[in-house]
Request: fold
Amino acid sequence: MLDELTGILRQYPDYRLSISGHTDDIGDTERNQRLSEDRAKACYDYFIFRGVKPDRLRAVGFGEDRPIADNKSSEGRELNRRVEFELTLD
Reply:
């Protein structure tokens, strides 16, 4: 998926990419915040490595604050541990 997004960013130089990291609610809230930031930053670093200019990227971690599923089940927690990407036109 990262290579696919890199290709889109190369093809459309006016696009920007927002990268958001997320976690489930297991563990310490502060640790989850750092983990979500690290997830987003790892993707950000990959895009930079692949030649995308940093001013076209934004990376943010949301910790456990934006679940998309119930954290009471292992399936829900798995869905909440994610990175999301949003392409926008400059």
Notes: The chain is about 40% helix and 25% strand. The first helix runs from residue 2 to 11. The chain has one domain: 2-89.
